[in-house]
Amino acid sequence: MQQSEVLEHLLKSARWSASRSSGPGGQHRDKASTRAELNLTLDSLAGLDPEVVDRLAVGLALDEHPLRIVVQDERSLARNQEIAIERLSELVAQALAPPAPPRRPTRPSRASRERRLAEKARRGRDKSLRRTPEAGG
């Protein structure tokens, strides 16, 4: 399944709500419900491929708690819903992305080993100079 198909499926099964938003806006803010809220639960994944369900459940943490995207950036409900969809799209893309390849450890170069040993020797000389002189006879 492609990301766009998964996103369409999630949007169909998502629960939308609108409420009054905070911040500037005067009377419009007081009267209009422009804050968009998108809620997704684990049940929203029903009907998708099992592999996609597993990735999304872990990537969106739907197995722990519902996903809630709240947007009140703009003064228009439609625009806030568009922003919520964009944010959901980014989260889905991250969740469906293949994991990064494991890091292959590298060995230190010869020059870096020599620098490290030279620095250790210098520190040892500095510390030996701090000692009190031996009582001689």
What does this 3D model show about the protein?
- By secondary structure, the chain is mainly alpha-helical.
- The protein has a domain at 3-96: Double Stranded RNA Binding Domain (2-Layer Sandwich), CATH 3.30.160.20.
- Helices cover 50% and strands 12% of the residues.
- It has 5 helices and 3 strands; from the N terminus they run αβαβαβαα.
- It has a 3-stranded antiparallel sheet.
- Helix 1 (3-13) packs across helix 4 (77-96) and helix 3 (50-59) crosses helix 4.
- The protein is elongated.
- The model has no long low-confidence stretch (mean pLDDT 90).
* General shape: elongated
Count all strands and give the number.
3
Percent of sequence in beta strands: 5-15%
CATH architectural group of one domain? 2-Layer Sandwich
Q: Order of strands side by side in the largest beta sheet?
A: 1-2-3
For this structure, what is the CATH class of one domain? Answer: Alpha Beta
Distance separating the two termini: 88 Å
The average pLDDT is 90
Helix content: 40-55%
Task: Please mark out the parts with pLDDT under 50 across 5 or more consecutive residues, or reply none.
Answer: none
Radius of gyration of CA atoms, rounded to a whole number: 29 Å
As for the CATH topology of one domain, it is: Double Stranded RNA Binding Domain
Find the structural class using helix and strand composition: mainly alpha
* SSE ordering: HEHEHEHH
| Biggest sheet layout | 3 strands, antiparallel
Compile the SSE list and pairings.
Elements: H1 3-13, E1 15-19, H2 26-31, E2 35-40, H3 50-59, E3 67-71, H4 77-96, H5 110-130
Helix pairs in contact: 1-4, 3-4
